[in-house]
Design brief:
Elements (H helix, E strand, L loop, with lengths): L8 E5 L6 H11 L3 E3 L3 E2 L14 E2 L2 H9 L3 E7 L2 E6 H10 L2 E5 L2 H10 L4 E6 L3 H11 L4 H16 L6 E4 L3 H26 L1
Parallel strand pairs: 1-7, 1-8, 2-7, 3-4, 8-9
Antiparallel strand pairs: 3-6, 5-6
Helix pairs in contact: 1-7, 5-6
Length: 199
């Protein structure tokens, strides 16, 4: 039987190294009826990333062609690479009655809020900027120059946290995951209560 209500759009963002990806993966193990929207990107895959699972890895030409056709719900140039969420992917899931989670950068999240004001914005923050820098250095995946770009962007992103509906401090992964799960479940309960009032 088709579900009677549209799903909700949850947008998860925060600076590189805050732990968004890890939290997102935990949510999909814990919560049913929530889908992950696979973003398009023009960057190369990182170790362990798989096409169609983590991202759709496409060329810059393909990305710009889709952008021209207004295929993206949101898009951004992050660290010199394009990222974007296909509008039809999101609407298809919401219309089916399932919830969808986007893991995107701050620029993209604010675009989604403009186009879909009912979306729920969740910001994942590190306990401190110093801790974030240490996490990024511990990765050992980038040159000092690239690292400094990420850190500059992180400062800007953290200044935008107040624009989000919820800020989750990732000082302890299990605690942060519990908080994120609670927010999503509470939102669902409130949505159902409102629906029942209307009926």
């Amino acid at each position: 039987m088709k579900k009677q209500t549209k799903g909700s759009l949850f947008v998860l963002s925060g600076p590189s190294g805050a732990g968004k990806g890890t939290l997102r993966k935990r949510m999909f193990r814990r919560i049913s009826g929530i889908k992950f929207s696979i973003s398009c990107t023009t960057r190369e895959p990182r170790d362990g990333e798989r096409e169609g699972i983590d991202y759709r890895f496409i060329s810059a030409e393909d990305f710009l062609s889709r952008l021209e056709k207004d295929d993206f719900l949101e898009h951004a140039d992050v660290h010199g690479h394009f990222y974007g969420t296909l509008r039809d992917d999101v609407l298809e899931v919401l219309d089916s009655g399932d919830d969808i989670l986007l893991e995107i950068d701050v620029q993209g999240a604010l675009q989604v809020r403009d186009k879909m004001p009912e979306s729920v914005l969740l910001f994942v923050a590190p306990p401190s900027f110093e801790e974030l820098e240490q996490r990024l250095r511990d990765r050992g995946t980038e040159s000092e120059e690239r690292l400094q770009i990420r850190l500059r962007n992180a400062r800007w992103e953290m200044e935008k946290a107040s624009l989000y509906d919820y800020v989750i401090i990732n000082d302890d992964l299990e605690r942060a995951a519990n908080e994120l799960e609670r927010i999503i479940i509470e939102h669902r309960k409130n949505r159902e209560a409102l629906r029942n009032e209307v009926l």
